[in-house]
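Memo to structure team: turn this sequence into structure tokens by end of day. - J.P.
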Amino acid sequence: MALPPVHHHTGLETSGGATRVARLLLEGLGRYEVDASLSFELAERADVMAIPPEDFGARLPEGAVAHVHCTGDWPALLGAIPTGAKVVVTLHDCELFTGGCPYPLDCPIAEDGCASPCPRNFPDADALRKRKLAEIQRLDPVLAAPSRWLARLAKTHLLRPVRVIPNGIPWPADLRAKAEARKLLGIHPAARVALFAAHGGMNAAYKSGDTWQELWERLKKALPDLVCFAVGGDREERRDDFILWPYVDRDKLALLMGASDVLLYPTRADNHSLVVLEAMAAGLPVVAYAVGGIPEQIVDRMTGMLVPPGDREQFVAAALSVLSSRSLVRQMGQEAFLSGRRKFSVERMIGDYARLYASL
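Reply from structure team:
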């Protein structure tokens, strides 16, 4: 198929799901011989393209599709793009149609716009939301969202159609042997191992990081041989069998997932989590609150367990039901690996976006 040149733009160079998706698309579009490029607003290396939001339009390669993933200033970035440009926006959270919240949770934005004053203290929240909407109406971009949940919300507030293109990641050909992964990490072969993982670790508000240790302590009472890793914070520490790890690279996280029995993911809000996909690619069942797009990733009682949002009692009970049965861990993990490979491969995601670009 004939595809136009594509320029991807995101906020941070080194972290975040939006940046990873942009990088995966940049790499994968090579097979379609697409002239693709990528810029950031905050770059840590001198050899990458750094473009402030207000300069984006002037530095957009001529004739290129502007594919925007995230920004620190939506009105400035959108306002810098000339009318008539070909624009694709992937919504990785809700910020494009809120007054500043990545996820509004119980905010009235879900029904009738921003509350005044903003309960989360974003300044001029409703005015900001209206400025974003005006730019969307002017540019008439193609909108995409990784989950049907976010697509429905965006369609309601941005008053236009939203295509659903689920996230995808590279999928291994086979599952790594758990015994091998545990040997490399020095974990006893007979231990039961649970894993929490989120950027920010126990300070990750949307991921309920402040509840991780309490949840583990309740699980530990029922399963004395339980070991738990909490990954993604800013320090390394051991509290009995509760082990805190700072942010680790993707290979190390995949190794740890391969050694674990379950990913505990008590997220309060989410779109289409790459951490969940990485767990599935490692053959790891996931126990999570049924929020946002998570039920579009996890099939309850087949690839993991879904729990009513915020219900810690049921979360602990669901985690215990998985951790107490090694056969259930194997069965759910195998199904997660196989179903995820069918639905969430990076090749499928790249193909979906390639067809979107071709339609322009």
